[in-house]
Design a protein that fits this description.
The protein has 257 residues and is α/β, with parallel strands linked by helices. The protein is built from 7 helices and 7 strands, in the order E-H-E-H-E-H-E-H-E-H-E-H-H-E. 41% of the residues are buried.
């Protein structure tokens, strides 16, 4: 049986690398696309050259079609899409620049719709060529979007991030219903993605476990949602928040007791 292909769209800071390594452990082919040559070079070193890499835009129709063309040329298939949308800069609704806001929507929610449209069509065409039959564990393909915790919880000063991440999760839920009968699943991993704030005191007081999700934990969740053993799961999210949503108030500092 041919090895499946996982296409990683956007690498983020550390999550894309962790996902690529984890997928390679499962024996999949990996093709990663990112607009940053530096990020691509870093991933090549991190994976020992085992991942196939492509420098290109991840939010335009042309960029996404080029990524599909690269996948079909090298592997003649695409099975799993793991997308890591770009996170916008901090802002508030009162100081919002509407041109920047429109651009952020195009890079996130618009791109999410185009990603699903372009690659689901390729998945379905391949299935028709193979004359696949309907079965209990039938899986034509999967989409997994790695979103920030702003998809569930808003924070003052992150207006555009909250709007765009919520919009993508809305797309996940709506698309999952549209594509379920075709054997395509659409899900999300929602986590406080690794960034500068992950170890600050503000976070520790509001997260029972006391830290952000690690890149390897996000990767594990994303790979699980792509696996055939999870074919019953679609339109859902795995939330990696360290218990934050269940906490009322803030945690006391043990050093103050």
């Amino acid at each position: 049986m041919d090895k499946p292909l996982t296409l990683i769209i956007g690498l983020g800071q550390t999550v894309g690398e962790a996902i690529a390594k984890r997928v390679l452990e499962d024996g999949h082919h990996v093709l990663a696309v990112d607009p940053s040559q530096t990020s691509i070079d870093d991933l090549k070193k991190a994976t020992g050259g085992k991942a196939d890499l492509f420098v290109g835009q991840t939010h335009t129709r042309l960029g996404l079609r080029n990524a599909l063309a690269a996948a079909m040329e090298q592997f003649d298939r695409v099975d799993h899409i793991i997308s890591i949308p770009e996170l916008p800069e901090a802002d508030t609704i009162l100081d919002l620049d509407m041109d920047d806001f429109q651009g952020a929507l195009e890079k996130t929610s618009w791109a999410a719709v185009e990603t699903i449209r372009i690659f689901s069509q390729a998945m379905l065409e391949r299935e028709q060529d193979q004359n696949a039959t309907m079965g209990q564990n039938r899986q034509v393909g999967t989409f997994t979007f790695v979103l920030s915790l702003s998809a569930e919880l808003s924070r003052v000063g992150s207006f555009t991030e909250s709007v765009t991440q919520n919009a993508i999760f809305g797309i996940v839920k709506a698309a999952s219903i549209e594509l379920a009968r075709q054997g395509i699943r659409v899900n999300a991993v929602i986590a406080l993605r690794p960034r500068d704030e992950q170890n600050d005191e503000w976070l520790k007081k509001r997260t029972p476990i006391g830290r952000a999700a690690q890149a390897e934990e996000i990767a594990e969740a994303a790979v699980f949602l792509s696996h055939p053993s999870s074919t019953i799961i679609t339109g859902q999210s795995i939330i990696l928040d360290g218990g934050r949503q269940r906490l009322s108030g803030i945690l006391a500092d043990p050093d103050e007791d």
